Amino acid sequence: MNVAPPIVAAELACTCPGCGAAFAPGGRGLGKTFCSPPCRKRFHAASQMDGAVLAPLVKAWIRTRHAKPDTRAAEICRFARQQLTEIAGVQFGRDADAGRDPVTFVGTLMDSGTRYIDRTRK
Ligand SMILES: [Zn+2]
What we know:
By secondary structure, this protein is mainly alpha-helical. Helix content is 61%, strand content 3%. It is built from 5 helices and 2 strands, in the order αββαααα. The protein has a two-stranded antiparallel ribbon with strand order 1-2. The chain is elongated.
């Protein structure tokens, strides 16, 4: 009879991107990403608020990033990039205060193979 090796607690621990707490993985499908549903909701609400501010700036920056120098488009590109950097700095501070780690979350998404473009319906 085969006996499964003992499971070490460290192997079970996942880090919640919403609060930084360690939790045991589980659940169906791809498994849990967050420690609890309220934590997941708080993380996504905060991400949506952050994204609403950044989205138009990212779009403007992408559209103008190859603009010819000394044009209005180049000026808009510089402004958008500067604003993105400044706003992201503020958001990093808020994330750190709340224990949120967006880098961990993106790593989890990357590891799952899930891409935003695959989740959208056309
Ligand atoms: Zn959490």
